[in-house]
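Incident log, structure service

09:12 report received: a user says their structure output differs between two submissions of the same chain.
09:20 pulled the input from the user's history:
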Amino acid sequence: MWKTILRRVLIMIPQLILLSVLVFMLSKMMPGDPLTGNFSQGQSAAQMAALRQQYGLNDPWYIQYFKWVGNMFHGDLGQSFVYKRSVTGLIGERAVNTFWLALMSTVILYVIAIPAGVIAGRYEGTKRDSAISVGSFILMAVPPFVFYLLGLIFFGFFLQWFPTGGSVSSTYNPGTLG
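09:34 re-ran on a clean worker, output below:
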């Protein structure tokens, strides 16, 4: 078993490296740069050139990539151009809500899946078993975002168990949180 785990981890390493290079290159192929959309209004060409130099956007792509990887391994994911804050901090603030959403979805999954599996196993070859099997295949074919929207409508609008506008009050101005 340990050999299988080790082999899969060793296979995963070059795949992750290749994927990170691919994603980085795709972001570099997009028109403009991170500064174009946010700062170009009201900035002179000299100011834009200074900002590009400050953020290392004038460096070749491979230098930018290795800087990004090096910073990532030190826990620095960079600065958000939208929020003007550390990306690591922004992710950390939202990690608690993400954890609770993942936990609750896992609990709901097991509450539904275990009894359905027991019923399908108990009544193997019957219409109940077929109905559960067909239902399972249909549910696996539905994209996750459809479930998210249905959950939002059911739990948020009908049952009103949680706010539908996010996890903060709607009285906050955008960009002022934290």
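09:41 both user submissions now match this output. Likely a transient worker issue. Closing.
09:42 reviewer note: The two ends are 46 Å apart (CA to CA). The helical segments are 2-29, 34-39, 45-54, 61-73, 87-122, 127-141, 144-158.
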